[in-house]
Specification:
Blueprint: H1 2-13, H2 16-35, H3 42-60, E1 64-65, E2 71-72, H4 78-87, H5 89-106, H6 113-119, H7 121-125, H8 137-159, H9 170-195, H10 198-205
Antiparallel strand pairs: 1-2
Helix pairs in contact: 2-5, 2-6, 3-4, 3-5, 4-5, 6-8, 8-9
């Protein structure tokens, strides 16, 4: 039985999509264990609802849409960052998860169930990492979008490798394809965080 178990485990580890599924599910389980401890009040629900609505609208007003998914927007992630800065990373994970499901409905590109996990719920949940940098907004935005980039990068390597041009590494293809829209998205978010009265907005949310 022990030999069969390790043999089966070895086969799973040799399959990139299986490894991605295990990692993705582990992240989701850990996140939901934290989210279960959240206590909601009317103010939180209203703020999250407004943030989600703004994110959906801003995502629809995109500047550019990549052929295999991914968009450059007018700072669509800013409302989710504000939720993370105001209520912390766990609430940011929750809001990101809900938006990931909305984005799946709004802009679906489906190849595989695990690909859906890494291109929709997980990358937007990763924006909640900004909540660990409540007083360092630029660092929070940078870390959050880097977390989102990592999820899309894994998806690109595992599920979009066939789209890579001949003799191009799937790692390099995924890196450049995702950077093509997330680097401009990061720049727009940083500019908006500089221009907007973020501290005043967060104070008014209190």
């Amino acid at each position: 039985m022990e030999v069969d178990f390790f043999s089966h485990l070895s086969k799973i580890m040799d399959n990139p999509s299986s490894v991605a599924a295990l990692v993705g599910m582990l992240i989701l389980i850990l996140a939901f264990l934290r989210i279960k401890k959240l206590v909601f009040n009317t103010q939180m629900i209203v703020h999250i609802g407004i943030a989600l609505a703004l994110t959906v609208v801003l995502h629809a007003l995109r500047l550019y849409h990549m052929p295999q998914g991914g968009s450059i927007t007018f700072g669509a992630m800013i409302p989710l960052f504000l939720i993370s800065f105001r209520y912390g990373p766990i609430m940011g994970y929750f809001a990101g998860f809900i938006y990931g499901l909305l984005n799946l409905i709004q802009d679906p590109y489906i190849l595989h169930p695990v690909q859906v996990l890494f291109d929709y719920p997980l990358p937007y949940m990763a924006l909640g990492l900004a909540g660990y940098f409540k007083d360092r907004y630029f660092m929070g935005v940078l870390v959050g979008i880097c977390g989102r980039f990592f999820c899309h990068f894994v998806s690109g390597v595992v599920f979009f490798a066939s789209y890579a041009p001949p003799n191009v590494s799937p790692y390099w293809y995924s890196l450049t394809a995702n950077a093509a829209y997330l680097v401009p998205e990061l720049a727009i978010c940083l500019i908006l965080m500089r221009v907007l009265p973020v501290r005043s907005l967060l104070i008014s949310m209190r």
